[in-house]
Write the structure tokens for this entry.
Amino acid sequence: MDKLLRFNTISEYNAFNNNATKHPLVSVVDFSKAAPRSGSKMYFGFYTIFLKDVKCGDLVYGRNTYDYQEGTMVFMAPGQVAGVNSNGEIYQPKGYGVVFHPDFIHGTSLGRHMQEYTFFGYQSHEALHLSDREREIVQDCFSKIDYELDHTIDKHSKRLISTTIELLLGHCIRFYDRQFITRDHVHHGILEKFEQLLNNYFATDQPQLTGLPSVAWCADKLNLSSNYFGDLIKKETGKTALEFIQAKLISVAKERIFDTEKTVSQIAFDLGFKYPQHFARLFKQQVGHTPLEYRSLN
């Protein structure tokens, strides 16, 4: 799977899959029309939404393999590289996809809200697994987009198509919310591992060497993408992953402030802050008192 195929335009990707280009910036792709192929890496210069129909190898993103089975969806943003590892075997692609260029959604409601669809940044083990009813809803949205593309492009086309894509993504947010609940066994222990990860971090001199732990660092240590990890923690705790990290940080800080042999500045540096004033500002924001006031009050 060493070969990298680059697709910067919708028409290039349609040609690769033997699909007609009905609109230069958006398409519904029927993968059953594509010629049989073996695994390869692909670069996408546009948004892609895949609905997989049959077993055809493992979808690989970076170093990780998607939890990707029949009846699952995967979302990718422009600039991402993914591929299929078919172990050298030839397979016939099947399924459908919706692909749309960023230029298509400029000035639309979809364009203004794209950052809300965090699953375009999900990676390994994070595909959306659909129930039969959910799959019908997805396929209905695909059909509505394709119906519009079959008609002559007019002043209504962009709004109708972008609105349908937005409807599809809105459904997918709901489906992911359901998945966080029904696939709880997959996520079991993530919160506990997250807390233990932070405990271990602050129990060493690592903060002094590398600074404060970031959400991306924690997600990587737990083998999750930042977006998926953040959404999962939010669903589990009601807090963002950053808020969770800050709460742990303040909890550790409260304990250390009682060590009067150390100045507040020394404690701040030990916790990973470059500048003590940043620590004091966060502490007061979270606790209601400055570190010195808290030490005096207690």
About this structure: The chain has two domains: 4-186, 189-297. Strands lie at 4-7, 26-30, 40-44, 47-52, 58-61, 64-65, 72-76, 81-85, 95-100, 128-129. Residues 54-68 have pLDDT under 50 and may be disordered.
